[in-house]
Amino acid sequence: MESTKVLDAKGLACPMPIVKTKKAMNDLATGEVLEIHATDKGAKNDLTAWATSGGHELIKHEEENDVFKFWIKKG
């Protein structure tokens, strides 16, 4: 998956992955993709809900070696 920017939020507890994601999204143009790496188990629900409520699109998410990876396209 092609991403414009990668955000490393590993080791951060809620709500920091969302806070960092929101800040990183502000630096992107509409249509660009942010890739987020997180270890907080709540990140899956949090980022999914945040993307939807913010008008963004969660393109894909996967788990690899206890790291959750998300690709969100800026709306």
From TrEMBL:
All residue ranges annotated as the UPF0033 domain in the record: 7-31
InterPro entries linked: TusA-like, TusA-like_sf
Sequence similarity: Belongs to the sulfur carrier protein TusA family.
Protein name from the UniProt record: Sulfurtransferase TusA family protein
Record organism: Lederbergia citri
